[in-house]
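User: Here's a structure from my thesis project, written as structure tokens. My advisor, Dr. K., wants to see whether a designed sequence matches the one we expressed. Can you design one independently, without my sequence as a hint?
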């Protein structure tokens, strides 16, 4: 299961030694709900190797604005605390796994 990322805890996640995947989403977003099971599956499969979390944009406006999120779903990929990749829109599981593999 993906972690819940908030305005108050996201910076701590980037300080860790594992790559981080942030899924920006909202309850009302159809494509977000469509990829939610994929994000949760990947979070479980890569547990201990990659931190996978979800950020509800409606509840966490600060981090959403900080990263300039204008469309959802948006996935941000971090390595060493730095933004390494970005994907806007729905994503297939094989494509998500490919992006994560590049972080490892």
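Assistant: Designed independently from the structure alone:
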């Amino acid at each position: 299961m993906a972690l819940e990322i908030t305005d108050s805890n996201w910076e701590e996640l980037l300080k860790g030694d594992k790559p981080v995947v942030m899924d920006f989403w909202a309850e009302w977003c159809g494509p977000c709900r469509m990829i939610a099971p994929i994000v949760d599956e990947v979070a479980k499969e890569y547990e201990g190797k990659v931190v996978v979390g979800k950020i509800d944009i409606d509840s966490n406006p600060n981090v959403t604005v900080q990263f300039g999120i204008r469309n959802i779903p948006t996935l941000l990929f971090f390595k060493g605390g730095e933004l390494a990749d970005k994907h806007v829109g729905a994503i297939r599981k094989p494509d998500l796994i490919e992006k994560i593999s590049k972080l490892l």
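When you compare it with your expressed construct, this may help: The beta strands are 3-4, 20-25, 51-56, 74-79, 82-88.
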